[in-house]
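Hi all, long-time lurker, first post. I run a small reading group and we've been trying to get comfortable going from sequence to structure in the token notation. Rather than ask abstract questions, I figured I'd post a concrete chain and ask someone more experienced to write out its structure so we can walk through it together at our next meeting. Sequence below, copied exactly:
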Amino acid sequence: MSNDFVQAFTFIGDNHSYVLGRVWSHLEISGIAVGIAVAIGLPIGIVLGHLHRLSFLAINISNLGRALPSLAILVIFLPIVGVGETDVIIALVILAFPPMLTNAYVAIDGVDPETVDAAKGIGLRPWQVLLRVELPLALPLIFAGVRTAVVFVIATATLSGFFGGGGLGDIISNEASFHLSGVIGGTYVLIALAFISQFVFLGLERAVTPTGLKLQARGFRSSTQTQVLLNEAGGNVAAESTDAA
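-- Answer (accepted) --
Happy to help. Here is the structure in token form:
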């Protein structure tokens, strides 16, 4: 048994072209699912959070999505869409949607009301408040939801191997062809993908975090965060007014 764990690395090296092809297929399936979930979940969560309404809708939809087992979803849609990527992508979208919706709603809804009032006080319209104040302050938490969803999707996409969807599941679900060392090798690659995606999105999260929030994280007062962001927004409003004149 312990020898299989060592031979798993040999399997990866000896079959690197095939493994790489499965990796790209796995990333393609995961990327499509995450992209669809982002396009649906984030706008709904952001709008509901901005309106501060229908919190029960965001929470209940998220709870329902989490309660549905991915394997059950695959089986339910199998007679409708058949075997292949489509069935897998639908299940992965339903898996990725809840954390994105919930985090987007909570992030926007939880922005400091005093900051929002100050933004309105310097002349920002409601949509400008959303885009220039609420959304920048909410981005770290929103990205945390996306990061969580991405890791879930990458891990669960291995089910595609049982439904003809491709990806690393083709290796992990096929011990008869690849033996235990191949299954373990595919699992190693899957774990590496999950860690890499985690670090990539942590980097993106840090990159999109506004300067004021970074200052706050280093020990500055929250008023500094607000002032920096409002100065930036106010400067944009003044620039637009000058351009219009």
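A couple of things your group might point at:
Residues 16-51 form the longest helix (36 residues).
The radius of gyration is 22 Å.
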